[in-house]
Model the fold of this input.
Amino acid sequence: MYFASDNSGPVHPQVMAALNEANQGYQMAYGADTLMNEVRDRIRGIFEAPGAAVYLVATGTAANSLALATLSNPWETVFCSPVAHIHEDECNAPEFYSGAKLTLVPGGDKMEPAALRRSILAEETRGVHGPQRGPVSITQVTERGSVYSLAELQALCSIAKEYDLPVHLDGARFTNALVALNCSPAEMTWKAGVDAVSFGGTKNGLMGVEAVVFFDESKAWEFELRRKRGAHLFSKHRYLSAQMAAYLNDDLWLQMARQANANCAHLADGLRGKGATFLHEPQANMIFAQFSRARHKQLHQAGAVYHLWGAELDGADDDEILACRLVCDWSINSDDIDRFIGLL
Done:
């Protein structure tokens, strides 16, 4: 009953097998391995973007930070949600790598077009004394488990383009959103107006690799320089390539995301049946649910692992309603989900 994070799940056996196969013999270093050519072509094909620049890094923080640094100047500001991962969970790495600041667009989990416009208009109002307008960064799936519809993405990108601002998509859970929307990667990115995407794999069954895709090839060399200068160019790059190649082979990336989302839907249905309420309607593989402290204590005592949200397990009032975050990955056993629901 492990629902702490999809980061905590195992690596898919096919990925482990691919790593073992890649470990045979010798390959050129620093991304010159033969597997990387295959990965680059596959990602370009998946995104219907034959001219896209494709690179691999080991962490989502590196993907987001280096991509945003490439899209911005140090005197600019990046527009994002107040709960965006780049704001709450990356220890100022985007600011460190880019020199730019973050502007939090007022609102909730999702950015609203009107709020984004107001935030953009509030900048470049003080001449040389204030930050200049920079990229818009959208998180898909959001940090609260919501999924932007294609229309919502298009609306945000349209506003960014009105002011000639690039758009970055933080896709740590990219594939979970993709299968939830039942759309194509192109529709969820460049066709909507996205300029660069962090195409996540670590949260979806990989050991540790993320792709950074620029639909504007002119950004390629700058990203390469920033990746090297930022100490994120792997010498034994083939082990990143091997993971991504296995991920894309026979649609494993889609299979794992569909399974994670299905696990989440199964869990959400069970929670509803037990009277739990939700802070946000579950749409992908993450749930924010509420039920009594007594039930939380019972579940933890039975071995369930998950995080309470803005609350502490210890407390005298067992009837108090506490929120929690539950995350499903591809590997969770349905029997464990049923056991969790049964205990609740």
Q: What stands out?
A: The chain is about 40% helix and 15% strand.
